[in-house]
Design a protein that fits this description.
alpha+beta, Heat Shock Protein 90, Ribosomal Protein S5, domain 2, 2 domains, five-stranded mixed beta sheet, 9 helices, 30% helix, binds adenosine-5'-diphosphate, binds magnesium ion
C-alpha cells in the first residue's frame, strides 16, 4: 500500500507546486471563500493551506487519506460529468505518501479533528476544538523519496511555479480571497469579491488590469468571457495567458492560437498578450480524464470554440479602433 501510494504520488506530486495545487483545489471544492497559503523554502520545507470551507466530518478524516477515497464522485457516470476540481481521490494519499502531513479540520456543527500522516502511516485521529474549515500542513516534502528530490529545481524556479499556480487558481475563482506568503513575506493577495478585473489587479497590478479589454461572446455550446491586454502590453512568454473551463484552469494549444489569431498582425512575432479567458460549457463536452493533473483537456467542437474566441477578440480590438 505504501509503495503503490508512492508510485501514484509520482503522477500527482511532481513538485511543491503540485501539492499547493491539489490542496487549494480541495479548499475550493469545499466551498471556501478565503484560502491562505504559506510556504517555506519554496514549499520544500513546508506548505500550509488554511481554508474556511465545509471541513471534514470526524469519521471521514482517516478515510480521506486512503487512495481513491473521494467524496465527490458517486458513480462511473459522474466521471464524465465532472463539476468539482478533484475527483480521483488520490491527492491526499499521494501527498501523505511522500511527506509529513498534519490535517486539522472542523465542520460548522461538528467538533474538530486532528490527524498526522507521515510517509503513508495514518496516525490516530484526535478530537480538538477548532474553527470551522480545514488546515493542511505538509512538511519535508520528498523526505522519504530522495530520488524525487533530484527532479526539484532551484527554489527560485519552484517558487515561481507556486506563484503561477495560485495566480491561475485565483483567476479561475474570483469569488475566493487568496493570500500567498513565502517565508512570511506576502507575495499575493486577491480581493475575492467575484470580480475578475479586481482579481487581475491583485495579480498583475492595478494599472495593467485597468488597461485590459473585456470581451464576451457565446453560441449554442459555449460562453466565453475575459480580459485581454492591448497590443502594446505584451509579454515574451505564454505564461500570462490563463484559460479556464467551468472554473478549472486548463492548457490548450488550439485556444492559445485562437486568441493570438484574434490580434492578427497587431501582435509582434514571439509576443503574447496578458489574458484571462473563462469558458462555460456543458461538462459533458470536456474530457478531463486525460492526465492525473487534469490540466490537459480534450474538447468536443474545439474548432467552433476557437473560432468564437478569435472573433470575440478581433471585434473587441476593432471596437477600440485597434
Ligand atoms: P479528491 O479531491 O479527488 O476527492 P483528495 O485526496 O484530494 O481527493 O481528498 C480526499 C477527500 O478529502 C475529498 O474528497 C474531501 O472529502 C476531503 N477533503 C480534502 N481536503 C479538504 C478540504 N480542504 N476541505 C474539506 N474536505 C476536504
Ligand atoms: Mg482533491
Amino acid at each position: 500500500e505504501t509503495l503503490s501510494n508512492q508510485i501514484a504520488a509520482g503522477e500527482v506530486v511532481e513538485r511543491p507546486a503540485s501539492v499547493v495545487k491539489e490542496l487549494v483545489e480541495n479548499s475550493i471544492d469545499a466551498g471556501a471563500t478565503q484560502v491562505d497559503v504559506s510556504v517555506k523554502d519554496a514549499g520544500l520545507a513546508q506548505i500550509q493551506v488554511v481554508d474556511n470551507g465545509a471541513g471534514i466530518e470526524p469519521d471521514d478524516v482517516p478515510v480521506a487519506f486512503l487512495r481513491h477515497a473521494t467524496s465527490k464522485i458517486l458513480t462511473t457516470r459522474d466521471l464524465f460529468n465532472v463539476h468539482s476540481l478533484g475527483f480521483r481521490g488520490e491527492a491526499l494519499a499521494s501527498i501523505a505518501a511522500v511527506a509529513k502531513v498534519n490535517l486539522e479540520t472542523a465542520t460548522t456543527a461538528g467538533v474538530g479533528t486532528k490527524i498526522q500522516v507521515n510517509g503513508g502511516e495514518i496516525g490516530t485521529p484526535e478530537t480538538a476544538a477548532l474553527r470551522p474549515g480545514t488546515q493542511v500542513q505538509v512538511d519535508d516534502l520528498f523526505y522519504n523519496t530522495p530520488a524525487r528530490l533530484k527532479y526539484v529545481k532551484s527554489q527560485q524556479t519552484e517558487l515561481a511555479k507556486i506563484v503561477d499556480i495560485i495566480n491561475r487558481l485565483a483567476l479561475a475563482n474570483p469569488q475566493v480571497a487568496f493570500t500567498l506568503r513565502h517565508n512570511d513575506n506576502l507575495m499575493l493577495k486577491t480581493a475575492g469579491h467575484g470580480d475578475l478585473q479586481q482579481t487581475l489587479a491583485g495579480i498583475y497590478g492595478v494599472t495593467t488590469a485597468k488597461s485590459m479589454l473585456d470581451f464576451e461572446s457565446q453560441d449554442l455550446d459555449f460562453k466565453v468571457h475575459g480580459f485581454t491586454s492591448l497590443p502594446d502590453t505584451t509579454r515574451a512568454s505564454r505564461n500570462y495567458l490563463s484559460f479556464m473551463i467551468n472554473g478549472r484552469y486548463i492548457k490548450n494549444l488550439a485556444l492559445t492560437k485562437a486568441l493570438i489569431a484574434g490580434y492578427g498582425s497587431k501582435l509582434m512575432v514571439g509576443r503574447y498578450p496578458i489574458a484571462v479567458i473563462a469558458i462555460e460549457m456543458d461538462p459533458l463536452l470536456v474530457d478531463v480524464n486525460v492526465h492525473p493533473t487534469k490540466q490537459e483537456v480534450r474538447l468536443s467542437k474545439e474548432d467552433n470554440l476557437a473560432q468564437l474566441l478569435t472573433q470575440a477578440v478581433q471585434e473587441r480590438l476593432a471596437s477600440e479602433n485597434l
